[in-house]
Design goal:
Elements: H1 13-30, H2 36-44, H3 46-54, H4 76-88, H5 100-103, H6 107-120, H7 134-154, H8 159-186, H9 191-212
Helix pairs in contact: 1-7, 7-8, 8-9
Length: 240
């Protein structure tokens, strides 16, 4: 379980960006395959407590609720079984895959764009991992926010990292997290996973609005975006 550390940072933008980085890292951990440590963090309330500790520094209200505190009687094996039931197995495919390309059309184009995003910022996904997994996308947001916070701390140009986060949310996470949430609502999922999905969806929606308050346009010269105003699936861009 990751630990949120906000001490020693300057108040204002630097602290807010560091809190956002920690939020995305926590979410990425929460959607990974459950370990005994993650189960304990859920059941003890430590996961929720860490989120609430970071909340005052965020540039938007954190939509956290007590559903993020798992039933303390829930065992590690039961949590793993629920994760597998929802996200990993099923006739044909899992009931709710954690892959963007399964929830949208044009998966190959989506994955190609994700790889361009990652590689532009010096990241490569490991062999066997797919770039459109929810954990990979959340980890990327964590990384970009971390780089933005570091740039602010050293006085370097932080704008490229901020713009990349805004456009990544617009083009990816904000486009398919609502589908994940809707599916889980239909699957009688454990409250912890339904609450996590609602938190991720709403946090990303609020975060992109905060990022949109800054100035700047997507940098087409970086080679990250299609040349027209369409997303990789061919749908017109629509930011809520």
């Amino acid at each position: 379980m990751t630990t949120i550390r906000l001490d020693g940072l300057r108040p204002g933008d630097e602290l807010a960006v560091a809190a956002r980085s920690s939020l995305y890292r926590c979410l990425a951990t929460a959607f990974s395959f459950p370990t005994p440590e993650l189960r304990e963090a859920f059941a003890s309330g430590h996961f929720l407590d860490e989120l609430l500790a970071a909340a005052p520094a965020l540039p938007f209200p954190l939509p956290a609720d007590d559903g993020l505190r798992a039933d303390p009687t829930l065992t590690h094996e039961e949590l793993q079984q629920e994760y597998i039931r929802l996200f990993e197995v099923g006739p044909g495919r899992p009931p709710c895959p954690l892959y963007e390309g399964v929830h949208r059309s044009g998966r190959m184009k989506i994955m190609e764009e994700l790889v361009r995003f990652y590689e532009h910022f010096g990241l490569r996904h490991e062999a066997g991992d797919l770039p459109d997994h929810l954990c990979a996308e959340l980890e990327f947001m964590h990384y970009l926010a971390f780089k933005e916070a570091a740039a602010l701390h050293t006085g370097a140009d932080s704008q490229p990292y901020r713009l990349a986060q805004r456009d990544f949310l617009r083009r990816h996470l904000n486009r398919w997290l609502p589908s994940v949430r809707l599916r889980l609502e239909q699957l009688d999922a454990l409250p912890i996973y339904l609450s996590l999905t609602r938190l991720a969806e709403e946090a990303c929606r609020r975060d992109v609005r905060s990022l949109e308050s800054g100035r700047g346009k997507p940098d087409k010269q970086m080679g990250l975006y299609p040349t027209d105003e369409e997303d990789p699936s061919g749908d017109k861009l629509s930011v809520r």
